[in-house]
Amino acid sequence: MEEMRARAQRFLERMRGRRTVRDFSDRPVPRDILERCILAAGTAPNGANRQPWRFVAVGDPEIKRRIRIEAEKEERAFYHGRATQEWLDALALLGTDEHKPFLERAPWLIVVFGESYEQRTDGRRLKNYYVTESVGIATGVLITALHEAGLVTLTHTPSPMKFLNQVLGRPDNERPFLILVVGYPAEGATVPEITKKSLEEVAVFLE
Q: What pLDDT sits at residue 194?
């Protein structure tokens, strides 16, 4: 039991060191590290074991540039029209805006898609279940795996994201879930001072 407590505490301390980074180095990350982390994400629980996820890892500079151009179009529309003032005030604490240079500078973008149905080669469509929940859990495992590997990440969700299907040549049964920016922090990168809610604020125990 004590070993279990110690392992849980070590993991807690490790994850307390995880922070979202917006300033990335262009230092290369070997593909095989991403492969292992993506395979770890694929162990996530999911509806009916349909595994309704697709991870598109983008290292090609031209494709990353196209993603940045399209994402910033949506971000400009968001920051200068679609977003409520309340939402903008919340984001102001993090210092974000419509400019997303990390989409080009970071060595990898992992675009996560949810697959609403599986298109079989014989023409049949097999429905997938609990897609959003399954993909969300897998993405959490992926972020944790990348952190354990010594990398930093940023979750980016321009809205709408349908342009990702076109840029990446993905079929209609795949819906973009988010862009995960992956790499090393730039030298001198800083992160905002934030706090996490206490156990009492996030959990209820009924014993």
A: 85
**Which DSSP category does 186 fall into?**
P
Checking if the pLDDT of 94 tops 80, the result is no
Q: Enter the pTM of the model.
A: 0.94
Task: Check whether 93 has a pLDDT greater than 80.
Answer: no
Whether the upstream peptide bond of residue 192 has omega within 30° of 0, thus cis, is: no
Look over the chain and give the mean of its residue pLDDT values, rounded to a whole number.
95
Burial, 194: exposed, middle or buried (Cβ in 10 Å; 0-12, 13-18, 19+)?
Answer: exposed
146: tokens are 């990348």
For residue 130, report the phi and psi dihedrals to the nearest 5 degrees. 50, 50
What is the secondary structure of 107-135 as a DSSP string?
A: SEEEEEEEESEEE-TTS-EEE-SSHHHHH
4-32 burial by CB neighbour count: b if 16+ within 10 A, else e?
Answer: eeeeeeeeeeeeeeeeebbbbbeeebeee
pLDDT over 80 (residue 113): yes
Give the strand order in the sheet containing 108-115: 53-58, 108-115, 174-183, 152-156
Q: How is the chain split into domains, by residue range?
A: 19-185
CATH topology of domain 19-185: NADH Oxidase (3.40.109)
Is the Cβ–Cβ distance between 148 and 10 less than 8 Å? no
